Amino acid sequence: MAALSAATLLPASARAEDSIWDVIAQNALKKDASPDKNTTEALATIDTPEPILSFDTAYNIQLAINYYTQIIQQGGWPQPTRSTFKLQLGKDGKAVSDLKRMLIVVGDMPAAKRISSSFDNDTDLAVRKYQVRHGIIPTGRIDEPTFYAMQVTADQRLSQLQVNSLRVQAMATSLSNSGRYVVVNIPAASIEAIDAGQVAQRHTAVVGRIDRPTPILDSKISQINFNPYWHVPKSLIERDLIKYMNDDPEYLTKFKIHIYDGKGNEVLPTDIDWKTDDAVNYSFRQEPGAENSMGHCKINFANKFDVYLHDTPAKSLFAENARFHSSGCVRVEGVSSLVGWLLAANGGWDQTSVEAVFNSNERLDVSVKLPTPIHTTYISAWANRQGTVSFRDDVYQFDAQGLVDTKTA
């Protein structure tokens, strides 16, 4: 509440231009700052043990709704201007003062009697807090994704909290006594493994892009395929594979993908007319190995959409802000840890033994002794017990449509 009243303070005077002494002072600020420490502190604000889908979260979202209602009643927050873009440690001016006001209002920066115009270490920390709350890589710099997130108004954020509050309440009721389960949160492109009401593991994920969305569903994880073959779905043959082969006739060879006719006989790429749709009449199977699209494992659960969790050779995608690249399946960072957790009841399995099978390239299918419920969900706004309010982009436009029940038909 103090943040609201502090937002009305006037800015300190801004210098018209930087002198050599200003540059020296800015460089000193950079040396004194601790970006690594600030990132660690920022990440700690979102690292709490309660699941996103829980009664705790439902209660915390309601507190956030009350707070954002008061923000709106007091006029919202200053909108960023062109001068806000690319602000970072060592900068100075009115745009920095305005940025600090916003960070105070949203709770990432403590209220102050006087707001200076210097982008100092405290401002760097506050920006990183803002970034982690919005799923943005914490750089401390007002980069493009941060700038766009700041353009969302308080009214829009309140509406987002309200519709997501209803979703969390509905799901929390059904999951309150579920024991062990896995939740994929699509807007956050993240995964939580929950045990006894607490988050045992969190994983960064890559989920379906807008034109090939990950479906909303409930199922049970029943089997792990180690070092699997990848059978290319017909839809991807039509959408992607034919195009790739026209662009690069060596594509299949490079990625160790074999072609089989209806009788199971292997055929050569040159036997297919890639200028037509002839390829859909054949089966395509990628061999296990480093290039395999599913990486070292596939996590199976029954569903009519033919989607699953899996490893990936494209590890660099996990470092991106917007991780919406798949054709509906979910890629899991640190998948060996999740597989070890899923197979814990089988006996003899942990992360080390899982990685040993990965490295052996051995084809192995293991049934999960205690099938684990999995829920793919759509939660784009939530709050935790520390009062940290997180938001994500409404990638599939479910919030815009006011959808509470987002389950895919």
Q: Could you characterize what this model shows?
A:
The protein has an 8-stranded mixed barrel with strand order 1-2-3-12-10-9-4-13. It is an alpha+beta fold and 409 residues long. It has helices at 2-6, 20-32, 35-44, 55-73, 94-105, 121-133, 144-150, 154-175, 234-247, 251-254, 335-342, 351-360, and strands at 181-185, 190-195, 198-208, 217-226, 230-231, 257-260, 266-267, 283-286, 297-301, 309-310, 324-326, 330-332, 364-377, 381-383, 389-391. The chain is globular, with a radius of gyration of 25 Å. The model is unreliable at 1-32 (pLDDT under 50).
What's this model, at a glance?
With 409 residues, this protein is α+β, with helices and mostly antiparallel strands. Helix content is 33%, strand content 19%.
Give a quick account of the main beta sheet: strands, pairing sense, barrel closure: 8 strands, mixed, barrel
Total helical elements: 12
Strand content: 15-25%
**Which stretches of 5+ consecutive residues score pLDDT under 50?**
1-32
User: What does the overall shape look like?
Assistant: globular
Q: Got a strand count?
A: 15
Distance between the termini: 43 Å
Element pattern in H and E: HHHHHHHHEEEEEHHEEEEEEEHHEEE
What percent of residues adopt helix (DSSP H or I)?
A: 25-40%
Q: Helices and strands: which structural class?
A: alpha+beta
**Average pLDDT level:** 90
Over the alpha carbons, how many angstroms does the gyration radius reach?
25 Å
